[in-house]
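## Example record

The block below lists the input lines for one assembly entry, exactly as stored, with component labels intact.
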Amino acid sequence: MALIMDYLVQGAQMLLVLLLAPLLTGWVRTLKAQMLRRRGPSLLQPYRDLFKLLRKEVVLADSASWLFRIAPYLIFAAIWVAAALVPTFAGGLMFSWTADLIAIVALLGTARFFLALAGLDVGTSFGGIGSSREMMIASLAEPAMLMMVFTLSLLAGATELTTVAHFMLTADVGLRVSLALALLALLMVAIAENARIPVDNPATHLELTMVHEAMVLEYSGRHLALIELAASLKLLLYVSLIGCIFAPWGMATAGAGLTVYGVGVVAYLGKLALGGLLLALFETSIAKMRVFRVDQFLGVALMLGLLGALLLFVSRSL
Amino acid sequence: MVNPPNLTTMPLPLFLILSMALLVVGVYAIATARRPNGSRRVYRLALAISAIALVLALTHLLTAPAPATLTLPLGLPWLGAHFRLDALSAFFLIVVNLGGAVASLFALGYGQHERAPKRVLPFYPAFLAGMNLVLLADDAFTFLFAWEFMSLTSWGLVMAHHQESANARAGYLYLVMACFGTLALLLAFGVMAGPNGGYDFAAIRTREMTAGWAAVALFLVLLGTGSKAGLVPLHVWLPLAHPAAPSHVSALMSGVMTKVAVYGFIRIVFDLLGEPLAWWWGGLVLALGGITAVLGVLYALMQHDLKRLLAYHTVENIGIIFIGLGLALAFQANHMYASAALALTAALFHILNHSLFKSLLFLGTGAVLTATGERDMERLGGLIHPMPWTALAFLIGAAAISALPPLNGFASEWLTFQAILLTPELPQWLLKFLAPAVGALLALSAALAAACFVKAFGITFLGRPRSPAAAQAQETDRYSLVAMFTLAALCLLAGILPGLVVDSLSPVVGLINGGAQLATQHTQPWLTLAPIIDAKSAYNGWLVLLFMALSGTMAAFLIHRFASNAVRRGPAWDCGFPDASPATQYTAGSFAQPIRRVFGSVVFQARERVTMPPPGDGRPAKWEVQLRDPVWDYGYAPITTAVIAASTRANHLQYLTIRRYLSLVFGALVFLLLGMALWR
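Predicted structure tokens for the full assembly:
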């Protein structure tokens, strides 16, 4: 019975992230619109967009190959699995040990690899520009992310997220400089990885500065729906990740009763709402930067991550 | 002198017989090379012999019997030729013979297109035999003989197409570096054997060395094996020589021969030198590994010749392997054998993985070369349409080498990261600072590798053809496809079941790590890879694959069933301005431009120059990139200049009178005798 319950909770987590992801995107969009004194679309608009796209036929470019057609499914699968492995309302789920934080980062890397390839597949200049810039951004964002992982795992003695969250909740962590540096690095990476302002603009089109949108320019119909959904899932993943590591309060542990799970879900929804609000505030208050400023932005993130790890390496022996 | 072969030592003579058989095939190839079916015969024999050796080596590693030794009355009369088969050599025999078997299978098809078969066929089996013998050698003379034999036969293969001047230059540079490396190894064995000249490995193992001499030996071994493996700054020959050979030989040189060099390093440093280790050895190897990894991938990103890109990328992977070995040395020096076991397992696993995917990628390049006659990526493109199977195999290799889960490259890099996470326990401050920095370099090189292989696969196989040759390409032959998919399947298997590989590496790790091994992995629930303890960190490859496959197919099924499955073909959208010319696509150079700007301007002093003629001028606009190789500029160019200056100075010695020559000879004699007298 307990085993069935475990499977059910794990399944609920997978469905929850999938269902909530467009809502978070809609929430950020609505907030941003209202901060700009616009009325903005309904909260549910991303769902409507997805359903509309799903029902439409796919227009494939003549030069598109089989890779172009399976890439959306691969990208979606990789990001969904990664998002479902980050603890949301409860930690220590049935399969939470399948992939640790390094593997989750690498799964996002798998998705990015195929997205960049899809950008090159049709053979247009916009696809190429998007792919090459995306890989440049990733080449700095991924090491910064891994440095943050190093800092965390040195503190918690684990790269497994449930253990990290548990450590942050129970142990006497206190205020640590390393953690602050790691949080800063993670926030900067999250902004870059999700193609948000100031690194990239999710609402842009027909601009030579676009990165993510340029890569998916040739996609249409159900393929585009999957890629948009994957992008929403990725945003949700990063907000859950920040919440799970730096604000693990209210998270249920595995095998707890339904009420505890309920509290966990409410706490998680609160974290998502807060994360969306902060993101909208930040995006509205800052301007997009030139592409070749991004390397400095992410270089800072990498240095912060490295500094955090180094401080820990040094302080552990004092 | 010959030991009577008994059951426990049986595989060792068999391996020697197989190596001899390869040599015989080499001689037979001289006779048969000109015949119409000659190359098929030679490769078939090489395939059969390698496959037998592979099975024998696998059985030896899995059953893990006691090491077998054998002495033959060959070589130096007072020494004899010693051979030994233990877990370490068995593991590397697997790597060598797996690579040999698959390359031979590939060559059954690919070798048909060889322009100069008689320059390739005799050397090919001899090269395989040389690599096998290095792994079996148990004394310095046999080791160096086999090492040099391997170098020379591979040099012969590099020079197979010597009419092209670039190949001749590559061959010359390779020969110089190979001689330098062997010289360093010769001196290293001299130092280790000591004044009494105990040159067999058993004697070297038991010999006590002072810390100073051991350090000298370490430096020499690093020079000797590092120059063969491609450790920065000794890598300069590698990206020239590996691509010059025929593709299946490139696969062997890059995927396998560099591993034989790593074997040399492990055998000498971990097995022969053994204790006492100084902690800074680990730091030195670690720093070299980190620098090699990042520089290697940055070099690779700047290339547009597909084979040269792969060769530079070998340099990166050698760096990753040496990071693992450096960590192991640092842990061993501090008697942290459990952590050293993890680092060693990571390094050995990456050795196996790199031999798999690098061979696969070189074979894929060979297929492209056969189909188009091109290896310049700027003239390829769109090959996924005429060559879907080659493209799929190459894609699996590219994803594996970019360390993407659930493939094998990720599993070994994950283990390396886990080993780095254990370094805060090290007591030395320098290592404490070095380890996270090397971790950052490793992460950087992994991310850059992904960019590099998006470029390699994307520009070559995706997009639209950039030349008529690429447009008229055809799928490669079946032998080649079977060879490539064998490797691709192994990449996937090793990636989703890493625990089984780690378990079979255990005896090797135990042998060179004072008996300490990782915990048994195949008894973990759900076959999870959990090197330390479960709660700390775990990774389960096949579950990740299963989840991805399930969610992907479920999404596809639901969408096609309930939403829409209509497809319409049309011209590309491209923001409303599609250009019919394939020249408007991104090229290899333009793809790497952002990274060149971010990293290359510092490392390679990359400069871009655009020459734009004024309006009305008929000349074409020009865009040039200038890259400088720091290693060549600051390392090799001064040496070359000095050698040329010295030889110019010494040149007039050629035109002396006989009187002066006689007095020179006399002076030298007096000098030497004086030196003898004083030294005594």
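The mean pLDDT of chain A is 89. Chain A has one domain: 2-315.
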